[in-house]
Amino acid sequence: MPTTTKVALVTGAAKRIGAEIARQLHQENFNVVIHYHHSAKAAQALVDELNDLREKSAICIAADLNNLAQINNLAAQAEQYWQRFDLLVNNASSFYPTPIGETSDDDWNQLINSNLKAPFFLAQALAPALKKYRGCIINIADIYADKPLKKHSVYSIAKAGNVMLTKTLAQELAPDVRVNGIAPGAILWPDDDHKKPVDRLSDENKEKMLAKIPLQQRGHELDITHTILFLAKNAPYITGQVLTVDGGRTLTI
Ligand SMILES: NC(=O)c1ccc[n+]([C@@H]2O[C@H](COP(=O)([O-])OP(=O)(O)OC[C@H]3O[C@@H](n4cnc5c(N)ncnc54)[C@H](OP(=O)(O)O)[C@@H]3O)[C@@H](O)[C@H]2O)c1
Questions:
Q1: Helices and strands in the chain: count of H runs, count of E runs
Q2: Rounded to two decimals, what is the model's pTM?
Q3: Catalytically annotated residue among 36, 133, 144, 155
Q4: At CA 6, angle to CA 27 and CA 167, rounded to 5?
Q5: What pLDDT digit, counting tens, does each position of 155-186 carry?
Q6: pLDDT at 198
Q7: From 9, 15, 93, mutation site for ligand 1 pocket: most ligand atoms within 8 A of C-beta
Q8: Would you tell me the crossing angle of helices 221-233 and 16-27 to the nearest 10 degrees?
Q9: Which of 12, 38, 98, 211 is a plausible cystine mate for 103, CB 3.0–4.6 Å?
Q10: Hey, whose CA ends up nearest to atom 36 of ligand 1?
């Protein structure tokens, strides 16, 4: 029997902003599918945390978003588990510099696949179920989709495509499915675990970045999760829009 509880898939949800999105949706009574790639332990810990709060309300599924078969399998499993599907949050993302002269085919694929190709193919695979349940899609973009981040051309290109993806899907999937995006500014400093020391943000550069934000501070994960809830639950006449959540940073770029 299909569940009457709404079902959401959040990609890249084992940690950081994605994990908070999953927690918040769960608190709003969604069953959640937590997608992860490398962070298996963190994903399972989050599933356990959420299932302790409400039995059988969370699962996790691994997929490398560079692989189309795995993307399609993720979509199929996410829909089949509770036999319904209401909300796709495309949050997973690779982020690192790609200076001109030092960028490989593999860098191009990593950044474009996670930020653009996977959101498209997940939306395509889940569109029939989303139409059936009059669900919605939320794509997490970036303020750098519009004004490029220096030495991050491929990431900026991918997020610019992600913004266009929101608009094209909103047009094509209407009237049954609403599609919106969120463009965060500085929320969490990048996870430096896998970065070369030279690519890490120094404390001095962090201070410089904060000084350029009119509200004079980083945002919080809640600033993103509250916007997700607004778009998913309280915005029935909004589609094709990308909401900027950046403390005013785009005013000063
Ligand atoms: N952090 C910010 O301040 C900020 C600012 C602007 C925009 N954003 C956007 O907000 C979203 C969340 O940001 P975040 O900083 O929390 O993200 P993040 O930690 O950098 O990445 C989220 C997850 O994406 C997954 N991922 C990356 N490449 C993948 C691949 N090829 N296949 C499968 N999964 C992959 C990783 O999962 P595993 O760990 O499981 O491998 C990772 O944990 C992203 O879309 C980001 O671009 C964030």
A1: 8, 7
A2: 0.98
A3: 155
A4: 100
A5: 999 999 999 999 999 999 999 999 999 999 99
A6: 66
A7: 93
A8: 50
A9: 98
A10: 12
